[in-house]
Design goal:
About 65% of the residues lie in helices and about 10% in strands. The chain is mainly α and about 150 residues long. The chain has one domain (about 10-145): Orthogonal Bundle (Arc Repressor Mutant, subunit A), CATH 1.10.10. A three-stranded antiparallel sheet has the order 1-3-2. A hairpin with a 2-residue loop joins strand 2 (about 85-90) and strand 3.
Length: about 150
Amino acid sequence: MGSHYTGDSEQQRALDCFIKLLRATESVNTEVHKSVYAEGLSESQFGILEALLHLGTLNQNQIAKKLLKSGGNITLVIDNLVKQGLVSKEKRSEDRRFYWIDLTDKGRRLIEHLFPRHAENIEKRMSVLTPEEQMQLGELCRKLGKNNKQ
């Protein structure tokens, strides 16, 4: 179902496209995160573990930027991961403004177990599109995401 807004045709087209984008995102996101939820992790917790796996030790600000989350939200999520024994957090003598976050052995084992299944779920869900369509969608999303016009 598209928008029922009766504005001009440009607004109707933009709203219809936006609604489809949101619905597709929610549908794909829910499906591909089922294995993450089954392990008792939130999307944000999984995102932090994945970032640390692929990028190495990061500070809280770097993690927040990578995940497009607020610093306050990331602090809470990291604290919960610390309580679960999945990440460690430390201040370094050279710059005590930040906490540096790293995977524990337990966290590394979990994300190394989860990520291949997650990638497989994404591949399956995206396979409805041809490789060319996937590339095109990726480019369109990048263009849309970098648009700063107001």
